């Protein structure tokens, strides 16, 4: 077990450019020496939307544990941008691998590891040639019974009433979706009134009720517009989306968990004909080694744009690809890729087989925490 000072790095996630993307602090915890209370205080002091605490691996090649805290000091089970940021850090700073000279891409095109989160084990991948990190997102997708009315949106964003296209959406209601227990978002579709997206202000999310057993959760609002799809022969259709995530009086420039919830909702045709018993994958408790190995094998970072067929051609996945831009209005452009694989069930319904989140990152600062007196 390593000893010494707790070091930290600052990076921006979902962008290769400095001072773009979503800032993240990564603190290396030496010997499990930080209490949960101390982690909470450190996260509040950094003041980023999330701070992630990376623990030492118990042995070579074994999973590393991470703890994710918000700027308010609350711990959350999973968030996309901390996992992507930590993956970049592990493979470019901790376990940096340089392919042998003249080796070509081949077997070195993908590196992989496992992170242990409060939402369960998360397989992560890094492509050193593309400089892209990806993770197999834990998912237990749940559509709540409640829908949010426009009146509740207006309680938080009253200024949108003066936008000329407001009348096109004034009678709409919006779904509430949890991608995993503990992370919930109302998905507010502004496609018919895209001008509203630019008029939003940092505020609280609209009030909404959560179903029983799902009430201990972060609650946010993801506002989005869908753009024209991009088609290329032999490849899945790419669905571009412009989004903003607002909650707790602030706007987040890049929210992987919200984008994954949205992608799952859209990929399943607003969760119609979705198998009620087959939406789970990698949520807390799913630690069986065979299940983890299976999921690691199913997620293919090196060639994620081509439809997957499992061995023997017995099972095909229907792949949906979303290219999401977030943080534009904040001057912190994030480019977030989410892929959702659907599996056809015997009863004609569909289940979510895999959710993959990917993006780039860059580092611009590092330091040490002073010892606690």
UniProtKB/TrEMBL annotation:
One GO MF term attached to the UniProt entry: isomerase activity
Gene Ontology CC terms, in alphabetical order: cytoplasm
Region annotation (Disordered) ranges: 279-314
Annotated coiled-coil segments of the chain: none
InterPro entries listed in its UniProt record: Phenazine_PhzF-like
Compositional bias per record (Basic and acidic residues), positions renumbered to this chain: 281-314
PANTHER family: ANTISENSE-ENHANCING SEQUENCE 1, PHENAZINE BIOSYNTHESIS PROTEIN
Record protein name field: Phenazine biosynthesis protein
Pfam families: PhzC-PhzF
SUPFAM superfamilies assigned to the protein according to its UniProt record, in alphabetical order: Diaminopimelate epimerase-like
Gene3D superfamilies found in the cross-reference section: Diaminopimelate Epimerase, Chain A, domain 1 (3.10.310.10)
